[in-house]
Write a structure and sequence with these properties.
By secondary structure, the chain is an alpha+beta fold. It has 19 helices and 18 strands. The strands form 4 sheets. The chain has a 6-stranded mixed beta sheet with strand order 10-14-15-13-12-11. A 5-stranded mixed beta sheet has the order 2-4-5-7-6.
Length: 598
């Protein structure tokens, strides 16, 4: 009798197969992301055939390519999911929450399987996936498919009953009336009979009745090529600025350069817009996060969104994801109270998180707000004193006190959960945002909720700036930070004990910052009345920068200063000026921090 067969080692992947698998993985992850976004839309409008088609197509693609590549598990699971969606397309099955949950589960399992494929081509050997079970999920799809179909009217009724907009008896009476008047819609009957609020009915039908535009034809472009195009557009802006300075004495040549400038500006705008993508995909991931976490912590939480079509630089979108996840986890776990506590405070038992995006002054603003218990000012102060962060004698504004929660390891959570509370969150959030020249502000009121406001530059490549001179050095201040500039007189200058130099503007005293103190040059201090003052603002704080000359406003291409200089506080980067010299771009928030420490 023959003994057991020797165990075969992991199967090696050929070079040709590696390339095909890499393409499949990239496209499959893209398809699954599209599916996740569309499933959130489908949850709001389960009977919309267009959305079902949009989900069906990427599953069909994954099924086809995985079959060709002999990726059996991926092929069978995507095929089972596709069958359910096909039944929903043909009207044999009515899409519901249970089905959407199952499809989301399928997306998660497919991601895990595709990650194994990715690990395979990265290591050069096929990775086992025996520990990933797909059989139970496939059986669930078969059971769902065998459930009876429901008509459109009954489905709308189910939505209204579930949302407690009407009772079931009213739906049944409306269906009886509809048999006599087939042309009448169920919602119309309910509104006429005053059994349902027109706004609630309209809300249930909003997505169903909305026109869906056909997407533009798109071409896939390497992100590296796109980044190179933006870089070269920036170089063209610099070259055009240098040329403009050299030809300013010749009117005819100056006119041609001005025309060239318009073309360069248009080209630069197109190059930048190619890198801009809507923030919707990131927002939709937050809906999934709230949906899953609220079930996990046993709280009823609703996420409302506004401005999800706001466009932002692709690289900035990547930077936003982690900070948003941290803050939404905190809002859900610490901010939103349990239903019993909310009712005791006179609030609705359902908690609310609001997610907003909009453009403001060359920045994108992301607001994450909840209507929970808010931050406890006294508790934060006590913790900060106990841990030695502050002495307890400082006079601090609410904004500065709330900023303390962004210190490394700072947490007032009384117990650690697997959702949040380890004290390794807000400092990571702050660092991630500041890496992209952004800022985070916190506003809160006890028992009235907390609002986190992230401010990030619209693009990482170009900045509108004010060029200033201090002695022989030139600096660029972002125009969004500049409030005003004026020449102070002797009567506008004061020194205040413990606070240093101040200048007066419209009756208010503003702390004065000398950049020569921050970046010493060895020269003597100039009298304030011999200089100009630029009032700048960051996070609702104002300071006055003492400068020698205001040289004008322009667009500047941000250049990295290299690894040895990238961590200098107060400097956001460098810009090549029209005379070919390098000007340092100031990070106003960083300058404020240095001045405060000093």
């Amino acid at each position: 009798m023959a003994g057991p067969l020797p165990q075969a080692g992991p199967e090696k992947i050929s070079l040709d197969d590696m390339e095909i698998l890499a393409d499949f993985v990239s496209e499959a992850f893209e398809n699954l992301e599209t599916i996740e976004i569309k499933l959130i839309d489908l949850e709001q409008d389960p009977d919309n055939k267009d959305i079902i088609n949009d989900i069906f197509r990427p599953f069909h693609t994954i099924k086809g390519v995985s079959g060709f590549l002999s990726l059996t598990k991926i092929n069978k699971l995507s095929h089972a999911t596709e069958n359910l969606l096909d039944s929903a397309r043909s009207g044999d099955f009515a899409m519901n929450r249970t089905a959407i949950d199952a499809i989301l589960e399928s997306v998660d399992v497919l991601k895990a399987l595709i990650e194994r494929v990715r690990d395979g081509y990265q290591t050069g050997f096929l990775q086992p996936d025996d520990d990933i079970d797909t059989e139970a999920l496939r059986k669930k799809f078969q059971r769902l498919q065998s459930s009876p179909a429901h008509g459109e009217n009954e489905l709308l009724g189910e939505i209204l009953v579930r949302e407690k907009a009407v009772d079931r008896e009213s739906i049944e009476k409306a269906l009886e009336i509809q048999k006599e008047f087939p042309d009448k819609k169920i919602g119309e009957i309910l509104v006429e009979a005053k059994k349902a609020d027109p706004v609630r009915v309209a809300s249930a039908l909003a997505e169903q009745n909305s026109l869906r535009n056909k997407p533009d034809t798109q071409v896939k472009v390497s992100t590296q090529k796109l980044d190179d195009l933006v870089d070269f557009a920036g170089e063209l802006v610099i070259a055009q600025a240098m040329l403009r300075q050299k030809t300013s004495h010749d009117p005819a040549l100056n006119q041609s350069v001005a025309h060239l400038g318009q073309i360069v500006t248009n080209m630069q705008n197109i190059a930048m817009s190619m890198r801009m993508i809507p923030i919707k995909a990131t927002f939709m991931k937050m809906i999934r996060l709230v949906r899953d976490l609220s079930r996990k912590v046993g709280k009823d939480v609703n996420l409302s969104m506004a401005g999800e079509d706001t466009e932002i630089d692709r690289n900035v979108v990547d930077a936003l994801y982690e900070p948003m996840v941290h803050m939404i986890r905190n809002s859900l776990d610490h901010g939103i109270e349990p239903a019993t506590e909310r009712r005791a405070k006179g609030k609705a038992s359902q908690g609310n998180i609001f997610l907003r995006a909009y453009h403001k002054g060359g920045h994108i603003i992301i607001e994450i707000e909840d209507d929970g218990r808010g931050l406890d000012r006294e508790k934060i102060l006590k913790k900060a004193v106990d841990t030695g962060l502050i002495t307890g004698h400082e006079q601090m504004t609410d904004a500065r006190i709330y900023d303390l929660i962004m210190e490394p390891g700072f947490s007032t959570a009384e117990k650690i959960t697997d959702v949040s509370g380890r004290g390794v969150g807000m400092d990571v959030v702050k660092a991630g945002i500041e890496k992209f020249r952004g800022h985070l502000a916190i506003a809160s009121k006890k028992d009235n909720g907390t609002k986190f406001t992230i401010s990030l530059p619209l693009t990482l490549a170009i900045i509108d700036g004010m060029l200033i001179r201090i002695e022989t050095e030139k600096y660029v201040i972002p125009t969004t930070a500049v409030q005003k500039a004026f020449k102070p007189g002797p009567e506008d200058y004061f020194t205040v004990e413990g606070k240093g130099e101040m200048v007066k503007d419209r009756g208010s005293l503003i702390p004065l910052i000398r950049l020569t103190d921050i970046y010493p040059r060895g020269s003597a201090k100039k009298p304030v009345q011999d200089c100009l003052v630029v009032v700048v603002e960051s996070k609702d704080e104002k300071r006055a920068l003492l400068i020698d000359e205001l040289l004008g406003k322009d667009e500047y291409v941000i250049k990295s200063l290299g690894s040895s200089l990238e961590n200098i506080k107060g400097i956001a980067g460098g810009a090549i000026l029209s005379d070919g010299r390098v000007g340092l771009i100031l990070d106003i928030h960083g300058i404020f921090s240095i001045a405060q420490e000093g």
